[in-house]
């Protein structure tokens, strides 16, 4: 990528380079700094507004907590009011008796008269002899199923809820709700103290931004804009779910305008729930002045940059004529013309650059010639070395098993003299003939497996029930060409080393699969296996540059031939579990015997 950029730069005229350099080094950094300063002022304005809003929210929380403390104290007193206990638990026999009791109880009205924070007090009771006088209210099914009533019954702590309108008993205010138990009567009721809506709204009226208070159900219980009281947060166009939003600051579109929202929580004393205090301000109004100042600054900066750009263009134009010829030569060199020659006169820096250019072209030509010659020599040497290695390794196949097989045949013939001997002799002759016929440098999987099958039958004759084998090959892989004697040494290794220190029958499985143009060859036995330490030594021997021990020459032979023929990724892979068996595998490209 860097060379490409250098080539493109060499193909540009000098004046264009100077202009681009000016843009990259001066104009863009200045514009970035200007935008950064603009963003800084804008962010400062936002941070100041957010800080002010947070302070205002904290003030509102404090004032609201003070206002709500009065109803809380009143509820604490009424919790233990004996007159209240008597009036709501007595069973009245006549309306006259009930009216007399109502007239004699003045506490609710006194609290309402003494405290401007209180708009009204109610008590909900299950006493069926009570009559609704807007202070003592008998329970009905609708009240029992209401959210605030159900929450109140769960705890003796106070709860703060917005009570939506009811057709018969409208409240439409934030109210304290509290369960009042009467252990002596084994009854209970719910006390409701309504908050004066004007007092609550007054706390928010002087706020500079839109501010509101909502209960846990999302009802707006107080707001700077009083029209919002009674609505839910979902009905307001905030663009986010404020009901489940944690305290903090966030950005959202409020009524279609980008805004910042500050959210905090207020939990009154001894309350089972909390209220949300939400303050919203439009970002546009806050950053308006900062944007104006930044715009004026950017206009002046842009004017200065344009003037400087014109000066740079004039200077670059005057200089580029002297370098135009050399620039053309550089372009030709960048495009690969190594016969280019610069003929620019002069002893100044441009003349020196021209002469150095010619020296560079000459040196490049000489180096290219040397590299080509060295590469050709290396390729010839590498080909010769590979041919030598192939010839040497092809002659290293261990023939000892043939002599062992002949000895076994001799002993078997000496003892029995059956047709089985004739079959084994036939297989041995076939195997020897196939081995002697190898000379073309390649064979097919089908021909290779015929040799392997003959070899296994001979070994089966030798070891009897101690050896069992199975061969499987995909039909599509039978005609694929491979180097000869690639699989037989692996099978020989499985039999010779698998039967060592192994009692009973050893199973040898040969599996050849064709998967996605890759031939996968696996030779697996359940013989004695190899220890991890010994396996590491074997892998080092067959892959190392030095000749290994004689017992592993077959594996090294196969591994070296595979890697020389197909490349390093196609060598042998050996896995083994000591006492359970060994698996030797390798992969080949299905295209035949081509070096990868």
Automatic annotation (TrEMBL):
SMART domains: HAMP. Pfam families: HAMP, HATPase_c, His_kinase. This is Sensor histidine kinase. It comes from Paenibacillus xylanilyticus. The keyword Transmembrane applies. Residues 317-369 form the HAMP domain. GO terms for cellular component: plasma membrane. CDD domains: HAMP (cd06225). The chain crosses the membrane at residues 20-41, 295-318. One of its GO terms (molecular function) is phosphorelay sensor kinase activity. It is a multi-pass membrane protein. It is found in: Cell membrane. It comes from the Bacteria. Keywords: Cell membrane, Coiled coil, Kinase, Membrane, Phosphoprotein, Transferase, Transmembrane, Transmembrane helix. Residues 364-391 form a coiled coil.
């Amino acid at each position: 990528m860097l060379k490409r950029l250098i080539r493109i730069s060499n193909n540009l005229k000098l004046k264009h380079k100077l202009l681009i350099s000016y843009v990259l080094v001066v104009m863009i950094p200045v514009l970035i700094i200007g935008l950064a300063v603009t963003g800084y002022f804008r962010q400062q304005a936002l941070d100041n507004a957010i800080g002010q809003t947070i302070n205002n929210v904290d003030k509102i929380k404090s004032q609201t907590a003070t206002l709500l403390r009065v109803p809380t104290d009143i509820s604490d007193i009424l919790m233990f009011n004996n007159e209240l206990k008597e009036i709501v638990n007595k069973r009245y026999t006549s309306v006259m008796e009930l009216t007399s009791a109502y007239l004699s109880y003045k506490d609710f009205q006194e609290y309402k008269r003494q405290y401007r924070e209180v708009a009204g007090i109610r008590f909900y009771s299950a006493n069926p002899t009570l009559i609704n006088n807007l202070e003592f209210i008998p329970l009905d099914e609708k009240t029992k199923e209401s959210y605030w009533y159900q929450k109140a019954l769960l705890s003796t702590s106070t709860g703060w809820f917005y009570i939506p309108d009811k057709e018969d008993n409208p409240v439409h205010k934030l109210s304290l709700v509290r369960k009042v138990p009467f252990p002596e009567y084994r009854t209970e009721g719910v006390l409701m103290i309504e908050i004066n809506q004007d007092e609550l709204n007054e706390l928010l009226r002087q706020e500079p931004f839109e501010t509101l208070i909502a209960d846990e159900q999302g009802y707006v219980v107080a707001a700077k804009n009083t029209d919002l009281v009674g609505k839910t947060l979902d009905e307001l166009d905030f663009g986010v779910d404020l009901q489940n939003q944690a305290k903090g600051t966030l950005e959202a579109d409020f009524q279609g305008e980008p805004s910042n929202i500050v959210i905090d929580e207020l939990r009154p004393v001894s309350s089972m729930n909390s209220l949300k205090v939400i303050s919203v301000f439009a970002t546009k109004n806050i950053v308006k002045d900062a944007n104006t100042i930044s715009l004026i600054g950017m206009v002046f900066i842009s004017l200065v940059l344009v003037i400087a750009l014109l000066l740079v263009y004039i200077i670059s134009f005057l200089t580029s004529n002297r370098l135009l010829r050399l620039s053309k030569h550089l372009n030709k060199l960048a495009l690969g013309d190594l016969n280019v020659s610069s003929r620019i006169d002069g002893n100044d820096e441009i003349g020196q650059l021209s002469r150095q250019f010619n020296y560079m072209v000459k040196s490049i030509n000489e180096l290219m010639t040397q590299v080509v010659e060295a590469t050709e020599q290396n390729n010839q040497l590498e080909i010769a070395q590979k041919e030598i290695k192939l010839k040497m390794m092809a002659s290293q196949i261990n023939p000892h098993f043939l002599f062992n097989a002949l000895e076994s045949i001799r002993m078997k013939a000496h003892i029995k003299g059956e047709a089985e001997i004739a079959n084994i002799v036939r297989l041995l002759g076939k195997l020897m003939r196939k081995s002697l016929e190898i000379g073309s440098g390649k064979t097919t999987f089908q021909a290779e497996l015929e040799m392997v099958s003959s070899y296994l039958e001979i070994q089966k004759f030798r070891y009897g029930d101690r050896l069992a084998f199975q061969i499987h090959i995909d039909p599509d892989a039978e005609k694929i060409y491979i180097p000869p004697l690639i699989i037989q040494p692996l099978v020989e290794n499985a039999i010779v080393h698998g039967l060592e220190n192994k009692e009973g029958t050893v199973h040898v499985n040969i599996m050849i699969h064709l998967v996605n143009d890759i031939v996968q060859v696996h030779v697996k036995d359940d013989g004695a296996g190899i220890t991890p330490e010994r396996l590491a030594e074997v892998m080092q021997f067959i892959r190392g540059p030095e000749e290994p021990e004689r017992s592993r020459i077959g594996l090294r032979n196969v591994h070296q031939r595979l890697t020389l023929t197909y490349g390093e990724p196609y060598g042998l892979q050996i896995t083994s579990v000591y006492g359970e068996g060994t698996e030797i595998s390798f992969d080949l490209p299905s295209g035949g015997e081509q070096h990868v």
